[in-house]
Design brief:
- It is a single chain.
- By secondary structure, this protein is α/β, with parallel strands linked by helices.
- Helix 14 links the parallel strand 8 and strand 9.
- The chain starts with 14 loop residues before the first helix and ends with a helix.
- Helix 4 packs across helix 7, helix 8 crosses helix 10 and helix 14 crosses helix 15.
- The strands form two sheets. The chain has a seven-stranded parallel beta sheet. Strands 2-3 form a two-stranded antiparallel sheet.
- The chain is built from 15 helices and nine strands.
């Protein structure tokens, strides 16, 4: 078992929570999507022995992986290490994470009867290891906020209907357009799951939660408004009473961020396709998070610094900004680059 000494004596750094609430901060806080994982030698060594699901089912081990980037990079938040598929097996979805492929489901959803056969999640009973990991981190090990997360209903549905990753989501859209009764039943089912799952993470100690709608960019704004937005509105309305910041993120979603701005969500995550300046010009009034193209981190430092400065200068133009990447860290990105980037951002944006 890997043990990590408690750090109760360290002052809690809540800078990122202030930024999420739109308050002034002494510097721009940051974290990186996929900051824990394949880019870290320590993680790759663990994966020689354990699968992803095996790591997430061992709270002490999962806490170690989650905390690694906080210790190594000095980022301002940890994000729980787990997969968006984690809550699906308990409700009856048979998921296997296949290397080089991703989540594969051998009992895909194709009808209302398939949805009716699914159960309801009871996080304390069904995913106690997730909650225990959060409790360990929040109680004993972190001096920065822990961000919990869930996949969004559309993205979860896309895997459940397609049976795995898809390039065009034909089956998913066919259900959405051609069998709306089944589609809305699936949205209701997954909306309930996300609400229960995220509330349990918050009660266990998560200080903010992010909803990943990774593939929602495949849907146009009109269809989003009709087929998906009501469920997202219900999710964020239910979470509002929990009193922690909520974050919405998707890929290729510049055409949807106006819709997100209407939701009772606190923070909008931007990928690299939409600049912060463009988002503000579109009337986005919420806190924004983002949005360096992670591929830039493969370039020379002079290029990285120039690109990051441009993003930071846009971000600090008004309160309510958190730096992040526009998607996840690549396995090829060197940990020293992320460490240097964190230090640069803190120094460049520090207010005297």
């Amino acid at each position: 078992m890997i043990e990590i000494k408690g750090e109760h004596f360290m002052q809690f750094n809540d800078t990122i929570l202030k930024a999420y609430r739109g308050e002034e901060t002494s510097y721009v806080p940051l974290w990186f999507m996929r900051q824990a994982g394949r880019s870290q030698p320590e993680y790759r060594k663990l994966k020689e022995k354990y699968s992803l699901f095996e790591i997430t089912h061992q709270p002490e081990l999962c806490a170690y992986v989650t905390k690694l980037p906080v210790d190594q990079y000095d980022v301002d938040a940890a994000i729980l290490y787990k997969d968006i598929m984690s809550p699906l097996p308990p409700i009856g979805v048979n998921v296997d994470i296949k290397p080089g492929v991703g989540p594969v489901i051998d009992n895909p959803i194709g009808s209302k009867a398939d949805i009716d056969r699914l159960g309801e999640i009871d996080p304390e009973h069904d995913v106690p290891y997730v909650l225990k990991t959060i409790e360990i981190l929040a109680r004993e090990q972190l001096n920065v906020p822990l961000i919990g997360f869930s996949g969004a209903p559309f993205t979860l549905a896309s895997y459940m209907v397609e049976g795995g990753p898809s390039k065009n989501y034909n089956k998913t859209k066919a259900m959405m357009y051609g069998d709306s009764t089944t589609w809305f039943a699936l949205m209701d089912k997954l909306g309930d799951l996300v609400i229960r799952y995220l509330k349990a993470q918050i009660h266990a100690g998560a200080k903010a939660v992010q909803v990943f709608d990774s593939w929602i960019g495949a849907v146009n704004a009109d269809d989003y408004r009709y087929f998906i937005k009501p469920t997202m509105d219900r999710i964020f309305t239910e979470l509002k009473d929990e009193g922690v910041p909520t974050i919405m993120f998707g890929v290729g979603t510049g055409h949807l961020i106006k819709e997100w701005n209407d939701l009772p969500v606190d923070v909008i995550g931007l990928d690299w396709r939409t600049s912060i300046q463009q988002a503000r010009a579109m009337g986005i009034t919420k806190t924004v998070q983002g949005n360096l193209d992670p591929a830039v981190l493969m370039a020379d430092w002079s290029i990285i610094e120039d690109r990051v400065k441009r993003i930071l200068d846009q971000g600090v133009s008004q309160p309510g900004y958190v730096f992040n990447l526009g998607h996840g860290v690549f396995p090829e990105i060197h940990p020293e680059t992320l460490k240097r980037l964190t230090a640069f951002i803190h120094e460049y944006t520090a207010q005297s």
